[in-house]
Amino acid sequence: MQNNGFSLPTSGIQGISNGITSKISHLGGDSISSVSDAPTAEQARGFQQLLSDAIGSVNEAQDGAKKATEALMTGKAESLHEVQIAGAKAEIMMKLTTTVTSKLAQATTQLFQMQV
Fold it and tell me: What is the DSSP string of 43-58?
């Protein structure tokens, strides 16, 4: 892939998905035995960092797609395929982010509705 004045994000969606899965299993695991157990400060920082990294990757993909589109419009892009791939990758990552956000909101709502 040639450098046309824009860069595509280096991390793939599968890498993000695998990273999220491994970190979530590491954070939760079997160590939380009941609802009353609060997460440790380390677990909270880890989850916060995980979300921050994931959103950063989505922003990076969105910026790459925007730069690729601008390069196409100005005639600097050599390959239409690279522009399409960058746009599709950014779209899929955004859909994944909104799905995860929605699931987290649903889980939070369910937790608040639980009677202790």
Answer: HHHHHHHHHHHHHHHH
